[in-house]
Specification:
Elements lengths: L1 H15 L4 H28 L5 H35 L5 H38 L7
Helix pairs in contact: 1-2, 2-3, 3-4
Length: 138
Amino acid sequence: MMNLSVFHLLLPVAALSSGYISTILTLALIGSLLTLSFIAKKSRSCAADPTESALVQAHWQQAWKRSKLLLVGYAISIAIMLIGWGLGSLQSDPKRLGILLVVVSRIAVVPTVLIVFALFVLSTFSVARAKQDEFPKE
């Protein structure tokens, strides 16, 4: 939940309202990737630890599955941006290139935003289940 709320909702809004858009968004992406690597590490260490409860293991495993979905969203967004840059390299007019990159960047962010919102809702349900000592639903 922290990854989603801070790095995908709070920091992008702060970036868009400041003059440091690329810097803040780069920091948000790095922070998100560090958080995802922590989730992956914790998921593996919980699975290997026989003293960890099955409930905790199940929730960390689910967190890692959902993190992989977020990584797929990043990959789709990056692929769309690469296609845009490829099409942009065919443009001879720099103004058209700028317009194309703005349009493609807006389209490229959509898969990640949709996945973030879906994961935010799913994570809210998971936190509620964890508080009630219930196993996550697949």
